[in-house]
Prior knowledge:
- With 88 residues, the protein is α+β, with helices and mostly antiparallel strands.
- It has helices spanning 2-20, 70-75, and strands at 38-39, 55-59, 64-67, 79-84.
- The chain has a domain at 26-84.
- The longest helix has 19 residues, at 2-20.
Amino acid sequence: MHRRVWEFVSIVVGSFVVAACTPVPPAGEAVSLAPGLTTCEDPRPQVCTLQYQPVCGFSSADEFKTYSNACSACSDQIVTGHRPGACE
């Protein structure tokens, strides 16, 4: 009986430890992304086409900037996400 209590306690404590280890996004990343933005993922593009299909990029400095296409926006290391169309 005493062993089962320790097994139960171990499971409960282990569950709390695992829950406490869930990653939290760094400040200025996914938390500050506005709804409707596509997130830029790693690895970032090294080469992009010259296709003109403007997107509005959102930077980690909480600023918006128009880029010629999604690839160009995500190749900028400070851009966290983008949405279709030029910024207003």
